[in-house]
Amino acid sequence: MLDPKLVRSEPQTIAAALAVKGFTLDVDKLNEWEASRKELQDKAQSLQAERNAYAKSMGKAIGEAKAKGEDIEPLKEKGEALKLACSEAETALASVQQQLDAYLSGVPNTPDPVVPQGATEDDNVEIRRWGEPREFDFDVKDHVDLGASLGLLDFETATKITGSRFAVMKGEIARLHRALIQFMLNTHTGEHGYQEINVPYVVNSDSLYGTGQLPKFEEDLFKLTDDRDFYLIPTAEVPVTNVFRDEIIDAAQLPVKFACHTPCFRSEAGSYGKDTRGMIRQHQFEKVELVQFVRPEESTETLEQLTGHAEAILQKLGLPYRTIILCGGDLGFSSARTYDIEVWLPSQQLYREISSCSNFRDFQARRLKARWRNPETGKPELLHTLNGSGLAVGRALLAVMENYQQADGSIAIPEVLQPYMGGQTAIG
Questions:
Q1: Contact 292, 80 (CB under 8 A)
Q2: What's the whole-model pTM score?
């Protein structure tokens, strides 16, 4: 959530920044709510002061009235009237504040100044490439046909078991999938300084609100149909970032760097008919997620480092990729700046997203009340949070399958994965 004080004091500045994301801030409505809030707050404070003053004098007034034989009921009635007036004023103030908070909860984060203008993914800007796409001297197969010919990747059985957009992996493909997870975790914990963490795959609505998935994106989630307000996680970002919800951590702990492998569950609402073939866009997939909590002044540089950690995995795997910065119109709800890393897929002759690395600044931390104690002031301050895929495992698998395919239908195993495959050099 944006800082409500900043939105109230500089609505036009915030509106101009949000316009880069294609979001229209209702400044008139905000000003109306703010004027009403101030009026009701003044009224509530004035009534409370009057009530407090009357309460102090009431005992004496009742005593004097009794001594004179006067009726004390009017004095009591006035006290009750002041109590009721205070309650009504506080209720009215709470109602306006609730409306304001509800509106602000649906307002996205403001983008960094470096975020390029643009409305769609076509306006994203490439900033670098690594590796050269391989030249094949035979007809390239996609991962679906490669997996089917080996009898190790089965979408029909998954559809029978559950439905569309699920997969069954067998034998050496399943082992290669597991090898990628182990390789990613070992690299991030052994070389990049992350601590491995294992978290629940089911979260409550407070956790999803904290990271920005609720209330705006509920249709993208799988909610459990019971009365416990539970959801399957769309990404490890949600449970891992919520580790420090309602916490104040010591400055000496920073930066905190977590690497987490989980399955991810997404309804893919609004994407029907898009990427339905194979493993590009599934309802269930796995990722190794990188999450960092840092001091505010360090988050910009941390995003560059975190993106580099994700890129390092692709470099070690020998997979060509490009890195782009998302334009305002393609930038996520909670993000201030995002780099997407796209891996080369020979079957499509395209780069496709395999990681998204974002700096949320204090947007998530404000919703989470995740803070650190600044030793210079001794006061709690909001953390900055960042995350990125390091990497999406299913997409890494299909990228390896397609880029390392051989003319006979076999798949060479990248050298860095061979130790995880018992020294095996090829599949098929």
A1: no
A2: 0.92
Helix or strand run (H / E) with residue 358:
strand 350-359
Give the catalytic positions in this structure.
266, 281, 353, 356, 395
C-alpha distances out from residue 192 to 88, 317, 353, Å:
56, 16, 22
CA 323 – CA 130 distance, rounded (Å) = 9
Q: Where are the alpha helices (DSSP H) in 191-289?
A: 205-211, 237-241
Q: What pLDDT score was predicted for residue 262?
A: 98
pLDDT of amino acid 275: 81
Tell me whether residue 387 is annotated as binding: yes
Based on C-alpha coordinates, what's the Rg of the chain?
28
Residue 59 has a pLDDT of: 72
How far apart CA 111 and CA 120 sit, in angstroms, is: 15
| CB-based contact 386:416 (threshold 8 Å) | no
Per-residue pLDDT, 68:
73
Long-range contacts of 42-46 (CB under 8 A, 24+ apart): 43/89, 43/93, 44/86, 44/89, 44/90, 44/92, 44/93
What is the model's pLDDT at position 149?
A: 97
Percent residues over pLDDT 90 in the chain: 88
Q: Is 198 annotated as belonging to a binding site?
A: no
Which residues lie across from 426 on neighbouring strands?
412
Is 267 marked as binding a ligand? Answer: yes
| Per-residue pLDDT, 272 | 62
| H or E stretch covering 264 | strand 256-265
Q: In which residue ranges of the chain is pLDDT below 70?
A: 61-62, 65-66, 269-273
3-state percent helix, strand, coil for the chain, nearest multiple of 5: 45, 20, 35
335 is in an annotated binding site: no
